[in-house]
Every structure is written in structure tokens, then in C-alpha cells.
Design brief:
With 188 residues, this protein is an alpha+beta fold. It has one domain. The protein is 61% helix and 14% strand. The protein is built from four helices and five strands; from the N terminus they run αββββααβα. It has a five-stranded antiparallel sheet with strand order 4-3-2-1-5. Strand 2 and strand 3 form a beta hairpin. Helix 2 packs antiparallel against helix 3. InterPro entries: Claudin, Claudin16, Claudin_CS, PMP22/EMP/MP20/Claudin. Claudins function as major constituents of the tight junction complexes that regulate the permeability of epithelia.
Length: 188
């Protein structure tokens, strides 16, 4: 039972870590489209902004000036939190691999292997919290930006939606959290 639970938690943690990495690297955190004309589709991300022409499918991307340049707070905070979540999830995966019962590393000391699984669960929990805060920070800021435009009658038919990168970051964070619960609460 314990080995099956460990492997399940490892699979979920691996998939969730991949989601977090994809969310950090991709550039569709906020979708900005024009409802009236359906001419272009703009995705804003943490690293660049891309516009796709809906008629011919041509995509052009503009890199942000520099990592060290002045950026909006939502981009800086989300970048920082997502990178930290990626690093912690990667560290937790490495620790979990060594702590799995099916791996022969430290086979003669099962107590240490169990502590490694618990430690991986705690590290995954910390990474999931950072990833969820980063994803939610960006999502709330997108919502506030849209609400400000609507309240000032600057809306002009443009709508803002959460992009698939934002949803991927939230899903990866929740998956890491579930894996951490499996490792810390359900593992005997």
C-alpha cells in the first residue's frame, strides 16, 4: 500500500511540476481580444507579448526589454514566485525519487527513506503555495485591470481573460499540493 501511494504521489508530483514549468515558460497568462472585429488575439505572458492575426494565423511576439528593466509589479512578483515554485518542486521530486521504496538507494534504512518522503511532501507543499500565490496574484491583477477599464468606460469592446498559462500554473500548484498531502498525511 505504501509503495503504491508513493508511486501515485510521485506521478502526480511529476505531472504537476511539468505543468508549473510550462506555465512559467509559456506566454499566454492573459488573453486580450477584440470582441467586435475578431481581427487579432493577444497573449501577454511573463516574458513577452504575442499577437496572432486571426485571418491569416501570423503570430508576432515582442520580448520585454530586459529582465532587469522596470516591469509592472504583477510580472515581477509572478516571475519570482513561479521560478521559486519550479525550483522547490524540482528539489522535492529529486528527494522523492531517492525516498521511494522501489529505489534501492538506502534500502537497508527504511526510516530514512520515509523521512525523505515526508521532506519531499513538505517541500512540495511550499512550492505549491508559492505557485498558487503567483498564479492567483496575476489572475487578480488581470481582473482588477479589467474592472478599472470598465468602471472608467474605457472598455471599448476589449475583453480580458485568463490565459491557458495561468490555468496551467493553478492546476500544477494544486496537483503539487495534493501530492504533498498524500506524502505527508497519508503515508505511514
Amino acid at each position: 500500500m505504501s509503495a503504491a501511494l508513493q508511486v501515485t504521489a510521485f506521478g502526480l508530483a511529476l505531472l504537476s511540476t511539468l505543468f508549473l514549468l510550462l506555465a512559467t515558460c509559456t506566454d499566454c497568462w492573459m488573453v486580450n481580444a477584440d470582441d467586435s472585429l475578431e481581427v487579432s488575439h493577444k497573449c501577454r505572458g511573463l516574458w513577452r507579448e504575442c499577437v496572432t492575426n486571426m485571418q491569416d494565423g501570423v503570430r508576432t511576439c515582442d520580448q520585454y526589454d530586459s529582465i532587469l528593466a522596470d516591469h509592472p509589479v504583477k510580472i515581477v512578483v509572478t516571475r519570482t514566485l513561479m521560478i521559486m515554485a519550479d525550483l522547490l518542486a524540482g528539489l522535492a521530486l529529486a528527494t522523492l525519487v531517492l525516498g521511494l521504496d522501489c529505489i534501492t538507494f538506502l534500502k537497508e534504512d527504511p526510516c530514512v527513506k520515509l523521512k525523505m518522503c515526508y521532506g519531499a511532501g513538505v517541500i512540495l507543499c511550499a512550492g505549491s503555495i508559492l505557485g498558487l500565490i503567483g498564479s492567483m496574484w496575476y489572475a487578480v491583477d488581470v481582473y482588477v485591470e479589467r474592472a478599472m477599464l470598465v468602471s472608467h468606460n474605457i472598455f471599448l469592446g476589449v475583453h480580458y481573460d485568463f490565459g491557458w498559462s495561468c490555468w496551467l500554473g493553478m492546476a500544477g500548484s494544486m496537483g503539487c499540493f495534493v501530492a504533498s498531502v498524500l506524502l505527508t498525511c497519508c503515508l505511514y
